[in-house]
Amino acid sequence: MRPDDYGTYGGAWMNETTGSSFWANMLASMPEAPPASTATMKVNHDNVLAAAKIIQTQIDALTDTFRHHGQALFVEPTADDPVSQDAAAAWNFRLVEADDSYAARIQDYMESLKKLITQLKESAKTYGFSEQDIEASFGGVVVD
């Protein structure tokens, strides 16, 4: 089967990167790999809580997007023939099921951001902020 003029196969959208134009845009905005543990971020007493809040906002947005649109990563076979079934299975393995799938990369990225939040909270404590100060900077929400 060959794509038609609109990039579809038999009417089903198939982006060669992700299987979904929404996820193609989402993944294009993510780094290739989670930040290395040697990555540095300069924070000080004046910006540590603001930096943590910005990172937490990004975690929340990505978590919400993944929760609501994660199912869009699954590809349905376009027909009942073996080629369509195998192609959908291959896409789903790469997009969702493999250890290095796009879904796993998204989750790894969110985990790396959560670790960064933990580091920023520890830095804030070092700068003399209390747990209440830290909690208040996140709008009263306890962040793990």
Key terms:
144 residues; mainly alpha; 5 helices; 2 strands; elongated; disordered N terminus
What does this structure look like?
It is built from five helices and two strands, in the order ββααααα. It has 144 residues and is mainly α. A two-stranded antiparallel sheet has the order 1-2. β1 (8-9) and β2 (12-13) form a beta hairpin. The longest helix is centred in the C-terminal third of the chain and has 25 residues, at 102-126.
Any chance you could write out the topology, listing elements then pairs?
Layout: E1 8-9, E2 12-13, H1 21-28, H2 48-69, H3 82-97, H4 102-126, H5 131-137
Antiparallel strand pairs: 1-2
Helix pairs in contact: 2-4
Query: What structural class is derived from the secondary structure elements?
Result: mainly alpha
| SS strand fraction | under 5%
User: Going across the major beta sheet, what is the strand order?
Assistant: 1-2
Low-confidence stretches: 1-19
**Order of H and E elements:** EEHHHHH
Query: What average pLDDT do the residues reach?
Result: 79
Shape: elongated
